[in-house]
Amino acid sequence: MATKRIASQVHKQASRLLREGYIQREPAWFRAVLDNPPLPLPARSPPLRTHFDTPSAATPLTPHADSKTVKPLPIKYVEDEVRRQFFRDHPFEAFRHTSLVEGATVQTEHPIRGVEWRRLRQRGRNPSPEDAVRYAVNLYEHHDMDLSSAYASAVAQFRSLRSELQVARSVALAEAEHLGMEFGPSQVDITFAKEQKALRTFQDAAAHDHTAETERKRWKAVVDREGRPDEWTKGQQYTRLWKDGVRPVYAPVLSEPEIKPEGILTPERAAHRISSQADFLNQLHHVPA
């Protein structure tokens, strides 16, 4: 009979059976369960109702609460509010690199805390945003300061320490450069160099494609894309020259001058002599290439 009950009420059922004499001996687990009783039923589980609390037929039943309306209370910590306000005032602090990897052991709490922690500088000259948040909470909890005043004090000390660190770094850099120290490229310069290298690969690829296209079109016309193409007159320029008596020169261009009895025959003079004849088209075969 006891096994049919809910698990958290088995010991109660066993106690009633022992009292009525249905069980002669206590189970071996009975005393242990009484010393360490199980957890009570969940909060959503309605408790058992007695007969006088049971609604009668004349009383209208109230609807049960919807599970969507039963929500846990929000959990709020002071650190979350201070941290949220801190990053609203200092958004660029979120871009500073931090390590989220723990070592072999979890880092222990700093020895300076509680009432002893009176200044933010006690934990170092380069505090992190988390140090400023914890310091504000520490002032609020251990130094009897309201949260607004604690936050204002923490932020003021945080900015002061960051300013001192920035000035110290600038002075150290100026001294090193004055003594002849040469620093390598910064991370920004390295990134720009990588970008320029990637852009040059696109230019080299375009030049290689143009060369390959030229080689494929060796016996075809290749348009020079760099210069401005000549304007097309739709034959008007040819017609005007034809009416003026200018004959076109179709003679091949000679690579070397020839020696004739009348003198040295240059490629220009040979082309002019051939074009001036009426039957120059028939003499193309007699002109040496």
Q: In words, what does this structure look like?
A:
One of its GO terms (cellular component) is mitochondrial small ribosomal subunit. Its main location: mitochondrion. Belongs to the mitochondrion-specific ribosomal protein mS23 family. It is found in: Mitochondrion. Keywords: Mitochondrion, Ribonucleoprotein, Ribosomal protein. With 289 residues, the chain is mainly alpha-helical. Among the domains are: 2-35, no CATH class; 78-96 and 111-178, no CATH class; 237-286, no CATH class. Helices cover 43% and strands 2% of the residues. It has helices at residues 10-20, 30-35, 78-89, 129-142, 147-178, 187-216, 236-243, 267-276; strands at 258-260, 263-265. It has a two-stranded antiparallel ribbon. β1 and β2 (263-265) form a beta hairpin. α3 (78-89) crosses α4 (129-142) and α4 packs antiparallel against α5. The longest helix has 32 residues, at 147-178.
List the defining traits of the structure above.
single chain; 289 residues; mainly alpha; two-stranded antiparallel ribbon; 8 helices; 2 strands; 43% helix; 2% strand; elongated; disordered C terminus
Short description:
Helix content is about 45%, strand content about 0%.
Radius of gyration, rounded? 49 Å
Assign an overall shape: elongated
Mean residue pLDDT: 77
Distance N to C terminus: 121 Å
| Class based on secondary structure composition and strand pairing | mainly alpha
Give the uncertain stretches in residue-range form: 278-289
Note the run of SSEs as H and E.
HHHHHHHEEH
Number of H- or I-type helical stretches: 8
